[in-house]
Amino acid sequence: MLTVLDQGYVRLVNHMGSDLTVVNAARVSYAKESKELSERDIKLIRFLAREGHTSPFRHVMLQFEIYAPLMVARQWWKYVIGSSHMEGTGDSLDAWNESSRRYITEEPAFYVPGAGQWRGKPENSKQGSGDALEWEIGQKHTDELMRYIEEGLRKYEAALADGVCAEQARLFLPSYGMYVRWYWTSSLQAVCHFLDQRLEHDAQREIQEYAKAILELSEPLFPHSIGELRRPNGEA
What we know:
2 domains, elongated, alpha+beta, EC 2.1.1.148, 14% strand, Gyrase A, domain 2, 8 helices
């Protein structure tokens, strides 16, 4: 498990397959199977990735538990929605199960940037962020956010005390910075697609940190497949 941001984390729960799984999935049509990964097998992985023959990479699966602010979760969710189109299967090979405050009333946790973590607007884009703001401005907004969260928590707890159901009381909680927990199960191809986009320099800083954690946990398991799928522009 790797810690991300102030209170978040990514935990590798389970995985299925290896680089050898990719090789054997590709060779099954010839009724051939490798017992150990060879240099010839590594070249095959490189060929499959370079030529866009991606179905063998979908026989490898990873499962993560993720605890992240809602703003990160909602960016992440679109990879589940889009995976059926990206993989060309008609059905998504991603699964997502998220904790719900309809059923639980565990103490809410919130992402609060420190005084030196607030970023300004980008100079040449309508979205994203630029350089860090001055410490004094950042401290002002950290304090404002804390007050806002405290007020929301007070109203949430008062609603629960009055007997309001959890699924309605949660309306008082400030949403975008609130931490949520979910399981994400995905094919290796879909994981690499997520990494390609969310490790880019112009991706939101917070989700970049989660993508780095996903890569750090995944790469030792599938070093050749991830390396080739993420090789820019099919470089040799």
